[in-house]
Specification:
Radius of gyration: 22 Å
Number of domains: 2
Structural class: mainly alpha
Number of helices: 20
CATH topology of the largest domain: Growth Hormone, Chain: A
Distance between the termini: 18 Å
C-alpha cells in the first residue's frame, strides 16, 4: 500500500507547529547574548553560557527519538504527545525567561527552554517522514522549512517593531529591556497555539497502518547484536581522548569550557563501554544499548551527511553567538552593551536574522524544489552552502549595515537548504520504524560542532583577536565552504 498523497492543506497542517517552535528558537538565538551581557557577562564568557543550548539537544533528541519510535497513545498518536509536552514547557520558559535578574537564573532558563524546544522539534522531523510518501519528502521538508523561516522572521523582528512602537529598548544596568521581555511573552503564546494547531488537525497512522505502507519493521535487534560483537577497545580510546583534552587545558592555557569537551569525549566512551557490556550480557532491552548501537551502526549515507552537518552548523553557531557584537562594534560603533548604539545594533541584527529567515522561507517554496528536481538534492545543497559561505565572507568587507541585507540573502539560501535537503535525503533512505532515533542521532552532528564552537572559539578569540570579533565571520565562511566540499561525497539515492 502507498500512503495517501497530501495536498497543500495537509502539508500545512503537518508542519505548522514548527512555525511556533521557530519563533521560540529565533527569540533565543537573537536575544540570549544580549540578555547575558545585560546581566553582566563579558564577550569572552558568551560561548560558555551558550553551551547549555547544544548540550540539551545532544542529550534530549536521541532519547526523544528512541521513545517516540516506540510510543502509541491511541488517538494522541506517536509523535504528537511529545509535541504537546514540549510546547507546554517551552511556552512557560519563554514567559519566565525575561524575569531573570541574575545571570545564573538566565543560564538555567536557557537550558530548560532549549530542552523543551528540542522535545517538540525532534519528533517533527520524523513526523514528516511518517505522514508523507517518499515522492513528497522534498515538498514536505520544504514546507516545514518555510514555516521555520516564517516563524524566525516573526521572532526576530518583534523586538525591532516594539522599539518602533515606543517600547523601551534600553534598560538600567543589570536589567532586561522591555522590548525583549514583551517579545518573549508574545513568543510563548504563539508557540503553544501553533503546536496545538498541528496536534488538532492531524491524525497519525497506527502501527498496523505503517506496517501496511512500509512493510515489516527493520530488525531492531541487529544493532544490538553488532554492538555485542564489538570489543571495548574503541570505548577506551574515547575515554583516553577525553582525559587528554582535559589535561591540555592548564598546559596549553585553554579556556575552562574546554573541560566540557573532554568530559563529553570520556562520557561517550563510558556510555559505549556500559552499552557493550549490557549487550554482551544479553540485557538488550535497554535504552543505552539501543542508542549506542544505532549510533555506531548508522547507514552509510547518514555518515556522509553527518560530516556536512558538522561543518554547516559550526558556521551557523558562530553566527548566532557573534553577529550581535560584530554588527554593534563595526557597523554601529559601540562594543558597550549598555549603550544606545549597541541596542540599535542588536535590533538591526534581529532584522537581519528576520531577513535571512524570510529568504529561507521563500527559497524553500520556490527555489529548492525546482533545483532539486533538475539537478538533484545533493547538488542543490552544494550550491546553497556556497551561497552561505559567500554571505559570511562579505562581513569582513562591509561597514554599511544596510548592505548586510545582501549578505543575508546568501545566508538565507544556505539556511533553507540546511533545514530541508539533508532531511529529505535521509527520510527517503532510512527504515521507517527507526526514523525517530536516526533523526535524533543526526542531531548529534548539529550539536557537536556547536559545543566545539562554544568551547574552542572563545579561546581562539581571546588569544588571537581579543578585541576583533569580526574574524569569527572568516571562520564561519571557511567551515561553510568545507561543508559544500563534503557534500560532494553524497549522492541522491532516492528521488522525490
Amino acid at each position: 500500500m502507498e500512503k495517501p498523497r497530501q495536498g497543500f492543506l495537509g502539508l500545512w497542517n503537518i508542519s505548522f507547529g514548527f512555525f511556533g517552535i521557530q519563533i521560540g528558537f529565533a527569540l533565543q538565538n537573537g536575544n540570549m547574548s544580549r540578555i547575558f551581557q545585560a546581566l553582566g557577562t563579558s564577550l569572552d564568557d558568551l560561548p560558555a553560557l551558550w553551551i547549555a543550548a547544544p548540550l540539551t539537544g545532544l542529550l534530549v533528541q536521541p532519547l526523544i527519538g528512541h521513545f517516540s519510535d516506540r510510543t502509541w497513545f491511541g488517538r494522541l498518536g506517536r509523535r504528537r504527545p511529545y509535541f504537546l509536552a514540549g510546547a507546554i514547557l517551552a511556552a512557560l520558559s519563554l514567559l519566565v525567561m525575561p524575569l531573570a535578574e541574575v545571570l545564573l537564573f538566565a543560564a538555567m532558563m536557557l537550558w530548560i527552554l532549549d530542552a523543551s524546544l528540542n522535545i517538540s522539534m525532534e519528533p517533527f522531523r520524523a513526523f514528516v517522514g511518517d505522514m508523507l510518501r517518499k515522492d513528497q519528502h522534498t515538498a514536505g521538508y520544504a514546507v516545514q522549512t518555510a514555516f521555520i523561516g516564517a516563524g524566525a522572521v516573526v521572532g526576530s523582528v518583534f523586538p525591532y517593531l516594539l522599539d518602533g512602537w515606543g517600547v523601551a529598548n534600553v534598560a538600567p544596568e543589570g536589567q532586561i529591556p522591555d522590548t525583549v521581555k514583551y517579545s518573549f511573552w508574545f513568543g510563548g503564546v504563539a508557540l503553544f497555539l501553533a503546536v496545538m494547531w498541528t496536534i488538532l488537525t492531524t491524525r497519525e497512522y497506527s502501527p498496523a497502518e505503517m506496517e501496511a505502507f512500509d512493510g515489516p519493521p527493520a530488525d531492531s535487534g541487529a544493532t544490538i547484536r553488532a554492538l555485542a560483537a564489538r570489543s571495548a577497545g574503541g570505548a577506551g580510546i574515547w575515554i583516553a581522548a577525553g582525559f587528554i583534552v582535559a589535561a591540555l587545558v592548564p598546559v596549553a592555557g585553554l579556556e575552562k569550557e574546554v573541560y566540557l569537551l573532554g568530559a563529553l569525549l570520556a562520557g561517550y566512551g563510558i556510555a559505549s563501554l556500559l552499552a557493550i557490556n549490557l549487550a554482551k550480557s544479553g540485557r538488550d532491552n535497554n535504552v543505552l544499548s539501543h542508542i549506542v548501537g544505532d549510533f555506531s551502526g548508522m547507514p552509510d549515507i547518514m555518515k556522509k551527511l553527518a560530516v556536512v552537518q558538522f561543518f554547516s552548523w559550526s558556521a551557523l553557531f558562530i553566527m548566532w553567538i557573534y553577529t550581535t557584537p560584530v554588527v554593534a562594534q563595526y557597523m554601529f560603533g559601540s562594543a558597550d552593551p549598555a549603550s544606545e548604539a549597541y541596542g540599535k545594533g542588536g535590533n538591526w541584527v534581529g532584522t537581519l536574522f528576520a531577513i535571512y529567515n524570510g529568504v529561507a522561507a521563500l527559497a524553500a517554496l520556490f527555489i529548492l524544489p525546482m533545483l532539486a528536481k533538475k539537478i538533484g538534492k545533493a547538488n542543490t545543497h552544494i550550491i546553497c552552502l556556497l551561497a552561505g559561505a559567500t554571505g559570511y565572507a562579505s562581513f569582513l568587507f562591509i561597514r554599511d549595515p544596510n548592505l548586510l541585507i545582501v549578505s543575508e540573502i546568501g545566508i538565507g539560501i544556505a539556511w533553507a537548504s540546511i533545514l530541508a535537503m539533508p532531511y529529505a535525503i535521509l527520510a527517503s533512505s532510512l527504515p521507517q520504524n527507526k526514523l525517530g532515533i536516526y533523526m535524533g542521532l543526526f542531531n548529534v552532528f548539529i550539536v557537536i560542532p556547536q559545543l566545539l564552537v562554544a568551547t574552542v572559539m572563545g579561546s581562539i578569540l581571546k588569544t588571537f583577536f581579543p578585541t576583533e570579533p569580526i574574524w569569527t565571520m572568516a571562520f564561519a565562511a571557511a567551515v561553510m565552504a568545507f561543508a559544500a566540499l563534503a557534500m560532494l561525497r553524497v549522492k541522491d539515492e532516492v528521488s522525490g
